[in-house]
Write a structure and sequence with these properties.
It is built from 29 helices and 34 strands. Helix 2 crosses helix 20. The protein starts with 50 loop residues before the first strand and ends in a 36-residue tail after the last helix. The structure holds iron/sulfur cluster.
């Protein structure tokens, strides 16, 4: 992360506007003698149209180059940090990227991945033209030919037209990896009327989101780290991988003001190493110490009674937990204490391994911080474990008890700090349901069941006639990539596959078309994230195009300004949708007409122009104050701040229309008498608009009660009564299931180095040079037991295969757990194409009926290219592709893939070679069916609760569950009750050679036990 120098703030010497809090703009290099120029943070904005710097490549000669500085937004993670591109005014080439001081989230700072965008732009391995699999060759055959964009657009538009005209909109699927934008994709899917959105979220963050969603209706918190006094992070993943820069810089600010930090993580991450407390929990036990802290806060009366009384659904809690008790807050507190009393620090120590005294001390720190207690959990424990989403609920219970929600230094729902502008002419909500995305077994899944998608195809539950994968590489990033490979190459399952991607990937190799898409400075998007207490909107833009247009050159499509024929996606979707409805008879074309030129096709610039003129509060006024149009303002600054320091929003009074509402229920919700089901809110009930608190209708939260739901009637009504409140439930990798004497360990694969991006680090040479190996971390006593030493080869056996990796013996991982980061192990099947040679190994892939083996033929090596750096590659390691050896483990509630693996670790066997991989497809299928048997499918009238978040939310009528034979079966199973998921795991004597034993038969279903939740482990058992 680049640092800013502290100095004078306010108005630059020239008097031009620049953001508060930044150092002196000083003078610019051309006006100053060399070496005597003062350091400066950023070129002043009034000189962005003409900025001169010496060309470092010409050194020692002083060759001045003139640049136009154009802001954009980084696309290498979801933080939406601002970047400023230095566009050479002579060649329109982007020469470097630095921070954008006008982006309120990143404030001019970036992590290493932001500036490394320059590598991705100039990568000699880059795909510059659309490619088609040569007719007559098989998928994955590696024979490609260049085609025109017109051919691509017509081919896909024709298939789409056929599907839409036949009223089969779900024949077309948009499967997204990295979204990097807000709202554009959902809009074009709505114009098609297709439930065609599938995404990577269930291999990423659904566990975290589900826990927060059940509590508050919004899927993550926005922590106010800079003002916090105590910060608790469950793992460091959020702050050292995703969201790295905006959150990390505010944690550091908080620390500089005296905040203490605790990190709960089995691995000593960079963040844990700089924390005041490192709590190395056994993976999956994190809820135990969190609930022990909650118990301490309750027992010692260290909680905010007023907040809990006003904003928690305690009446509902009491109704269920003590139905005969009088409905008083005092009785509620008594019951709550009773529920959490068994979670003692000693119990938590026995489960997690964290000393009871440390848990007590952290509880004291949290209590002392009070309203200035901030915390977060994103992937990590929530993404690693069966019931991981309950870790999130346990953590948020601490926020609720301290009353830090909506307060300075605390946390607030992310929706308060994110802004998505409305587009021109909003299409109606979709009216169909896609069971390949939302299978009925997972009615509470936070997002689409994407890890199961290939298995559902293998089950024969559907086919996919038209598939767009977009910045998605599931063969490599997902678990069980071989099941993906087999599905994607099967033309009976997947009809026409276009891979929209800025780079080669293992998945693109198996597509029919590879369609090169723009990087951060080559495309338009709007993007916003919760980075602090404020709202802002970032504007990604194609910087060379903007520079050309500013200098008077006319550009019709962005690809004319981009390298080769790299399209920007927005234009692609407009074009393909326009062509799919050539005469407008399908009703699609109307949504692609210009708001300014009736009947004519919209230009992307007009799409954003209309949005900025009509949907962004305060922007027209800010622009006018500078003599700019709203679009010109966004092109100039790349972002706009909409609000800051917005706390206490739940308290806001809502104007309820007289007569149209009534106050209902236990929690006194202000509810519309009737609601319109054609436009459902993304989250929250369509009819419930406020909570009556202190006699006034207040905004509250997006839950059915508009309160924070300590007791979730949704969980109870949808078959999970044992999880109605935050409880500790044992994970599928609990220590009772691990036998070290048999060589068993827990593999932690859910972290990555902060310089890496999943698939796209590979085309950033600086990032690859920084990090190009990922050893298996093993603690010294485990290494001795296994017989491993640093550099030695280990064979790691999973349920469906194994991989061979180098060991690193370190104290930085807790005993019993081994870990390997997930950003390495890229491979390609051809020497000169199909993969980034900076980071991928050439492999040989050999298959039998059910198995596949990969063996490295050659590691990374210098290669000839237009970039002279490529002959200077000095590293050879490409890492090991571990994810492909993991089966799918979908949590039966959240749908989150539970990444942690029970593995057997032993020294490599004779004949094993580094990076060898073996996978058994039949075993992968068996494990999938085993986890499917843990579900409690929808069995009532609806497919899922209507108030829960769902991307691309359908109309109310689409929620109707078909009353077919499968629904009848689900009803019978619900009536009989279910065994707990943990107990079903314990029944199985895990053995890599006999995967899942008797439950391995396809489609098997466990016998339900007498009563729901009967086998819930730990003191949460009721
Ligand atoms: S934190 Fe994310 S958005 Fe920000 S610079 Fe790094 S990769 Fe880019």
């Amino acid at each position: 992360m680049s640092k800013r120098r502290h100095g004078a703030s306010g108005v630059a010497r020239s008097g031009a506007r620049r953001p508060a809090g930044y150092g002196s703009a000083g003078s610019s290099l051309p006006d100053s003698p060399p070496l005597a120029a003062p350091l400066q943070d950023f070129p002043p904005v009034e000189r962005w149209d003409s900025w001169t710097e010496y060309d470092p490549a010409a050194w020692p000669r002083r060759v001045a180059r003139e640049y136009m500085l154009v802001p954009t937004v980084c696309f290498n993670c979801e933080s939406a940090c601002g970047l400023t591109a230095f566009v050479d005014k002579e060649t329109f080439e982007i020469r470097k990227l630095e921070g954008n001081p006008y982006n309120p989230g990143s404030r001019g700072r970036n992590c290493a991945k932001g500036p490394a965008t320059i590598n991705q732009i100039h990568d000699p391995e880059r795909i510059l033209y659309p490619l088609r699999r040569k007719p007559g060759t098989p998928r994955g055959g590696g024979e490609w030919e260049r085609v025109s964009w017109d051919h691509v657009l017509d081919t896909f538009a024709q298939r789409m037209h056929e599907a839409f005209a036949a009223r089969r909109p779900n024949d077309v699927l948009y499967f997204v990896g990295r979204p990097g934008e807000d709202g554009f994709a959902e809009r074009f899917l709505e114009t098609w009327g297709a439930d065609g959105h599938n995404s990577h979220t269930n291999v990423c963050s659904s566990g975290g989101r589900t826990g927060y969603g059940i509590w508050s209706g919004t899927d993550r918190p926005s922590p106010d780290y800079a003002n916090a006094k105590f910060i608790l992070l469950c793992s460091a993943h959020l702050e050292s991988g995703h969201y790295f820069n905006p959150h990390a810089q505010r944690i550091v600010e908080g620390q500089q003001r005296g905040a203490k930090v605790a990190v709960m993580d089995p691995r000593l991450s960079n963040t844990a190493a700089r924390a005041d407390y490192w709590l190395p929990t056994w993976p999956g036990t994190e809820a135990a110490p969190l609930l022990a802290i909650a118990s301490i806060l309750l027992e010692r009366d260290w909680f905010d009674r007023e907040f809990v009384q006003r904003w928690v659904n305690w009446r509902t809690y009491l109704k269920h937990r003590a139905p005969s008790a009088e409905q008083t807050f005092a009785n509620f507190v008594t019951e709550l204490r009773r529920e959490y009393a068994p979670y003692t620090p000693e119990f938590a120590e026995a489960e997690s391994g964290v000393p009871a005294a440390t848990i007590d001390q952290v509880a004291r720190e949290i209590a002392a911080a009070g309203h200035a207690f901030s915390s977060h959990i994103w992937r990590a424990a929530a993404a690693g474990n069966l019931h991981g989403w309950q870790v999130t609920r346990a953590m948020h219970l601490l926020n609720v008890l301290t009353g830090c929600i909506g307060r300075p230094g605390g946390v607030q729902p992310n929706a308060w700090n994110k802004f998505i502008p409305e587009p021109w002419r909003k299409p109606p909500a979709i009216g169909v349901w896609n069971e390949l995305n939302w299978p009925r077994e997972y009615p509470l899944a936070h997002n689409e069941m994407s890890p199961l998608w290939p298995h559902l195809l293998h089950d024969g539950r559907g086919t996919q006639p038209v598939l767009f994968t977009r910045v998605l590489n599931p063969i490599w990033t997902y678990p069980d990539g071989y099941s993906w490979l087999r599905a994607l190459r099967d033309e009976d399952k997947v009809g026409l596959h276009g891979a929209l991607t800025p780079t080669w990937s293992e998945t693109a190799w198996w597509a029919d078309y590879v369609l090169p898409m723009g990087l951060a400075p080559e495309r338009h998007d709007t993007h916003s994230y919760e980075t602090h207490s404020g709202r802002w909107l970032g504007f990604r833009q194609p910087v060379a195009r903007v520079a050309m247009e500013r200098l008077g050159r006319s550009v019709e499509f962005t690809y004319e300004a981009n390298p080769g024929e790299v399209w920007e996606e927005g234009e692609f979707w407009i074009e393909v949708s326009w062509r799919a409805d050539p005469d407008g008879s399908l009703g699609i074309r109307q949504f692609y007409e210009s708001p300014y030129r009736p009947g004519e096709k919209i230009k992307l610039e007009e799409y954003y122009r209309w949005m900025f003129e009509n949907s962004v509060p305060g922007l027209p006024e800010k622009a006018a104050a500078e003599g700019l149009t709203p679009l010109e303002y966004m092109r100039r600054y790349g972002a706009v701040e909409i609000a800051r320091d917005e706390y206490h929003q739940h308290e806001a009074e809502v104007e309820a229309p007289a007569g149209a509402v009534e106050v209902r229920g236990q929690e006194r919700t202000v509810t519309k008498v009737a609601f319109d089901g054609t436009h459902m809110p993304l989250t929250g009930r369509p009819d419930t608009i406020a909570a009556e608190v202190d006699g006034a209708p207040r905004r509250g939260f997006n839950t059915p009660s508009r309160k924070l739901e300590l007791y979730s009637e949704t969980m109870e009504e949808w078959g999970w009564p044992e999880f109605a409140t935050p409880v500790y439930a044992r994970s599928h990798v609990h220590h009772s299931l691990i036998d070290h004497e048999r060589g068993e360990y827990v593999l932690l694969p859910t972290f990555r180095l902060p310089t890496m991006i999943h698939s796209r680090s590979a085309n950033a040479k600086y990032l690859t040079e920084l990090a190009h190996t990922h050893p298996l971390l093993v603690c010294p006593q485990d290494a001795e037991r296994i017989g491993l030493e640093t550099g030695g080869l280990a064979r790691v056996e999973t349920e469906i295969g194994w991989f061979v990796i180098k060991a690193l013996v370190t104290e930085g991982i807790r005993p019993g757990v081994v870990a390997a980061s997930h950003h390495m192990g890229r491979w390609r099947l051809a020497q000169h194409t199909g993969g980034e040679r900076w980071a991928s190994a050439l492999v040989d892939m050999s298959e039998s009926a059910d198995t596949v083996d990969f063996r490295r033929v050659q590691g990374v090596a210098p290669f000839e290219s237009g970039d002279r750096s490529s002959m200077r590659v000095w590293w050879s390691d490409a890492g090991v592709h571990q994810n492909i050896t993991f089966p799918v483990h979908p949590d039966p509630v959240s749908g989150m893939h539970c990444w942690h693996q029970k593995v057997r670790v032993r020294p490599a066997l004779p004949g094993d070679r580094y990076a060898d991989i073996h996978v058994d497809f039949a075993k992968a299928r068996a494990v999938y069916h085993k986890w499917l048997s843990l579900t409690r499918p929808a069995s009532g009238d609806l497919r899922r609760p209507i108030w829960l978040f769902r991307p691309l939310k359908p109309r109310f009528d689409a929620y109707a569950l078909p009353q077919d034979e499968r629904t009848q079966r689900a009803r019978a199973a619900h009536a009989a009750g279910f065994a707990s998921a943990f107990e079903l795991h314990r029944e199985v004597d895990w053995n890599p050679e006999e995967v899942w034993g008797p439950l391995a038969q396809a489609g098997s279903r466990a016998e339900p036990s007498a009563r729901p939740g009967a086998a819930l482990a730990g003191p949460g058992q009721r």
